[in-house]
Automatic annotation (TrEMBL), chain A:
Name under which the protein is recorded: Two-component response regulator
Annotated ranges, domain Response regulatory: 24-139
InterPro entries in the cross-refs: ARR-like (IPR045279), CheY-like_superfamily (IPR011006), Homeodomain-like_sf (IPR009057), Myb_dom (IPR017930), Myb_dom_plants (IPR006447), Response_reg_B-typ_pln (IPR017053), SANT/Myb (IPR001005), Sig_transdc_resp-reg_receiver (IPR001789)
UniProt keyword terms in alphabetical order: Activator, DNA-binding, Nucleus, Phosphoprotein, Transcription, Transcription regulation, Two-component regulatory system
Native source species: Protea cynaroides
Gene3D superfamilies: 3.40.50.2300, Homeodomain-like (1.10.10.60)
Protein location: Nucleus
Gene Ontology BP annotations: cytokinin-activated signaling pathway; phosphorelay signal transduction system
GO CC terms, sorted: nucleus
Matches recorded under Pfam families: Myb_DNA-binding (PF00249), Response_reg (PF00072)
Major subcellular location class: nucleus
TrEMBL record, chain B:
Function recorded in the entry: Functions as a two-component phosphorelay mediators between cytokinin sensor histidine kinases and response regulators (B-type ARRs). Plays an important role in propagating cytokinin signal transduction.
Gene Ontology MF annotations: histidine phosphotransfer kinase activity; protein histidine kinase binding
PANTHER family to which the protein is assigned, alphabetical: HISTIDINE-CONTAINING PHOSPHOTRANSFER PROTEIN 2, PHOSPHORELAY INTERMEDIATE PROTEIN YPD1
Naturally occurring in which organism (per UniProt): Protea cynaroides
Cellular component, GO, one term: cytosol
Domain writeup: Histidine-containing phosphotransfer domain (HPt) contains an active histidine that mediates the phosphotransfer.
HPt domain: residues covered: 37-125
Alphabetic keyword roster: Cytokinin signaling pathway, Cytoplasm, Nucleus, Phosphoprotein, Two-component regulatory system
Modified residues (Phosphohistidine): H78
InterPro entries recorded: AHP1-5/YPD1, HPT_dom_sf, Sig_transdc_His_kin_Hpt_dom
CDD domains per UniProt: HPT
Keyword Disulfide bond appears in the UniProt entry: no
Record protein name field: Histidine-containing phosphotransfer protein
Localization per Swiss-Prot or TrEMBL: Cytoplasm, Cytosol; Nucleus
Amino acid sequence: MTVEERPVNAGNDEPKDRFPVGMRVLAVDDDPTCLRLLDTLLRRCQYHVTTTSQAITALKMLRENKNRFDLVISDVHMPDMDGFKLLELVGLEMDLPVIMLSANSDTKVVMKGIAHGAVDYLLKPVRIEELKNIWQHVLRRRKFDSKDQNNSNHPEKPQGSGESGQGNLAGGNADKNAKQNRKRKDQDEDEDEDCEDNGLENEDPDTATQKKPRVVWSVELHRKFVAAVNQLGIDKAVPKRILDLMNVERLTRENVASHLQKYRLYLKRISCVASQQANMVAALGGKDPSYLQMASLDGFGDFHALNGSGQLPNAALTSLPPAGMLGRLNTPAGLGIRGLAPSGMIQLGRAQNSSNPINDLGKLRPVVLSGNRNGNLLQGMPTSLELDQLQQSKCISRIGEFSGRNEQTVFPVAGGFSETAVTIGSSNNSFLTVANNPLMLQGHPQLTQSRGLRNPSSVNIAPRNPEPFDIGGGVSSHVSDQNRCNDNWQSAVPLTGFPSNSIPLGTPFNHADLGHSNLTDTISQMGSHIGNNPLDICSTSIVPAPLQDSRSDMQCQANILIGNNVQHDSSKFSNFGGLGNNLDQSLNGPKQRWEDHRQDYSTNSNLLFSSINSSLPTHGVVSQLTQRLGQNTVVSNQNVDTSLLSQSNSGAYLLQHNMDTPIRLKEEYSLEQTQAQNGFISNSCGSLEDLMAAMIKQEQQEAKLMDGGDIGYEVYPLRTFPNGIYSALLSFLAMYPVLFPTIEHWHENPFKPSEIR
Amino acid sequence: MAERCRQMLKSFVQSLYDEGMLDLQFAQLQALQDASNPSFVADVIKLFCQDTEKIIMELNKYLSERVVDFQGMDSYVHQLKGSSSSIGAQLIKTACNEFRQACDSNCRKGWKKVSFPMVLEGHSV
């Protein structure tokens, strides 16, 4: 650290070389002795210190000027407010790195802190050596933000920088971030919130952490993009011209370039898969995008999914969520997605694993449309569920990671899906597993194991669309296997999407819910929801497969789904919840969602749930998931998903960016988180609207907690979601049982509508 | 004269170290005191004593009840532990730990009050 004198001024634009001197720290501790000591120590480190013994005062200070501080250090035990609560709020509202402080060295408490999104956890007595290094967290956070923004989506670079939305806004920090593909996992922060900021660009340019606005490839945006590309001709489509044609503000050539790259990959994937199964592809197309997008359930076919990588809008999202989740969770998400996407889709995802899954997914979209999407979604969801179950922290981190990593994870997932979708017709199972595996591999070896997916089950998935079904079936089987490891969320998720399939999926899912009692509950709940909203949850149907096997997958998937769901505007609902619906709809819609999902992904875990149920975009879910993930040791936030992880980050913030409804979802999502998914699930059954309503309610509840924040749901770091997400996931999982009566069903006749539901 | 006082102080503090009442954290505190912060240690100790007194009073109240609310006490003890460890009051910290363990096992244990007055005295220097 340089020891130069640095005037304290707002903004992170202080020259790098002077940082960390003069870093503005807010210290909160009810113990005057410690506070005084902390104050002195921090001043000794040449930081600029503000102290308060009241958490409420601290919040007030933070809220009145977001740029006033770079870092917050807070005690865990405080009389007026729980330290974790403060942590969440700060993470959500201001997205500042928060360090926890406590005399309690109990591992569980530390984990909880990480799960809630703390970037670090210090023990009392605090030593100056430790304080000398805290500036790293600030820098890291900044970099992430910048990177995301500048990152031009390298799907191939799933590493942490995943979240990069392609916004290359501000070149300043972006420069360093853009170049660094920091692996999310490497960050001990689970603040995947960065990913969550998927919101539309320039989400919050003035944040102390200097976040660069991220470009979110919403469905509409993606549609425009595709239109422009088609107009120019895929061979001739160059970023500059596409940009001109699209005529969108705040979109840079770099954004378009990276998006185009992803799209190309997606198309490649699609074409490969398509050759295998025209039908499947078609069926899957709808589905895949959905799951890819998680948020944008619109049918995975949409390229959005492809966009996944930084934003992985549709495909990516769905796949990402799983992927993201996978990263965190164990790639259940990935699996989930796979499961979701009708087997064909999954395969696509699989193939892609490399980060171009999205591309494929995009292709799948058209194909899968029907069943697959659900699958994807589900996958996402399970992941989220899984997260909850598995480890809140993990989930969050996953999610958070996911956002960041979306590219990574998503891709595989997406790829898997797309592939699966395509192949579903033919050999779903094989693909599914493959697809799933890749995804799973990403995050967790477990997943891969579970990937074993029961092919048969997946096949059974009630074929809403015969084709898609196959895919879904195949997928589900795979997924289920995979899910097994984690939570068959995935299967559950997809199932939901698939009305007909959902049931089978649901069941399997429930079964899959092996260890996670919670998940099962949620899934069962979800299952019921899903069953109810078969159409809406198109994705769910797809999910079934995964569900069975890995609960964890479910989580991921759930997350994914949620993410997908969330992303969808209420109108888009179809994608997520109504994968079935989406199938019919153009897949493009979901694409946009996808992006949202991505962000939400972290928080999406919750979202997925909602979506699954009512195909509501579960932005929140995802975000929650991310929070949960926080584990990456992140705080479970940093979990989160850091992002996803804010842990109960209200998906709202994600939503906002994307759409109105999404925002609501986020809110709801956050509410969801807090609330048992049950409420959530029950609502969603009917439709996304219900889900949203449920979510909103929850959101409101959450909102109450978070009042004051101008979060506007935009910035809900995933961190805050953990609770919500988990619950969402759980609920989702719980639904599964309902949705999928039994795993066996899968094998038999999963696709039978009656059974499914 | 001043020198003598300083010497006495030093030896006193040293004795506290020897007794195990203070640990290295206190040394850190001392190191933090400098020209820009001349009375840091004294201030901190003062704060600590005030805070600790309150906590001890609360704990006494708890202990004097027939049915002791260990849970409630636990939070206070935790607080005390945090404070004492921050300034290096080792003995108190240890006592806190033991007390907490005792609370966990739900058995009544004599609170080590003895250490407190000593420490407080020591810190008042």
